């Protein structure tokens, strides 16, 4: 296994700082984000689906390249690839629950394409490199090595409205299972 797809046992657990509470009930903004499959994630696409799961993550690493400064010490930073792999591994279950899945980060689409291909993701990743959605929704962020990154959170969107938030997400490799459990307990309207 790659060090990027496994989690160290002593990762610091993030705490709920309240910075995602305002998201519940918000409408998804009318902003189109480029996806790794060449299409776009926008309000129309989200509103047309029964349910949309959007997991926001700080950034995926690249094998052989160093992680950002102090990455393992930043609560909630490490685990983007394991989180993506968990959504990959549970994709069929999510689809059976009428949920489309997208990952979202502030990395560029070209950077995300490498990760999507390497991790064999069956769903596209959305690039918010210009921080348009991050600013419109006031998503929680942090800065490291001059990069503004989104804190790990997962949003469930129905009919274009955010109906549930998972924040903070820890451990990240269990997030997909937590989402499935919530979807099973809360049938779509």
UniProtKB/TrEMBL annotation:
SUPFAM superfamilies: Thioredoxin-like. Residues 22-188 form the Thioredoxin domain. InterPro entries: Peroxiredoxin_BCP/PrxQ, Redoxin, Thioredoxin-like_sf, Thioredoxin_domain. Its EC number is 1.11.1.15. The keyword Nucleotide-binding does not apply. Keywords: Antioxidant, Disulfide bond, Oxidoreductase, Peroxidase, Redox-active center. This is Putative peroxiredoxin bcp. It comes from Hartmannibacter diazotrophicus.
């Amino acid at each position: 296994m790659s060090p990027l797809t496994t989690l160290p046992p002593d990762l610091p657990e993030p705490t709920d700082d309240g910075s995602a509470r305002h998201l519940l009930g918000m409408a998804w903004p009318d902003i189109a984000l480029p996806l790794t499959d060449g299409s776009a994630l926008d309000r129309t696409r989200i509103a047309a689906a029964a349910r949309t799961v959007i997991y926001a993550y700080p950034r995926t690493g690249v094998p052989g390249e160093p992680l950002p400064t102090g990455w393992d010490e930043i609560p909630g930073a490490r685990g983007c690839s394991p989180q993506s792999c968990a959504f990959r591994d549970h994709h069929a279950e999510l689809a059976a629950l009428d949920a489309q899945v997208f990952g979202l980060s502030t990395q560029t689409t070209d950077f995300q394409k490498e990760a999507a291909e390497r991790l064999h993701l069956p769903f596209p990743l959305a690039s918010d490199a210009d921080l348009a959605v991050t600013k419109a929704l006031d998503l929680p962020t942090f800065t490291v090595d001059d990069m503004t990154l989104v804190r790990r959170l997962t949003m469930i969107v129905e009919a274009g409205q955010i109906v549930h938030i998972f924040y903070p997400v820890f451990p990240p490799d269990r997030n997909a299972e937590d989402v499935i459990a919530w979807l099973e307990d809360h049938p779509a309207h």
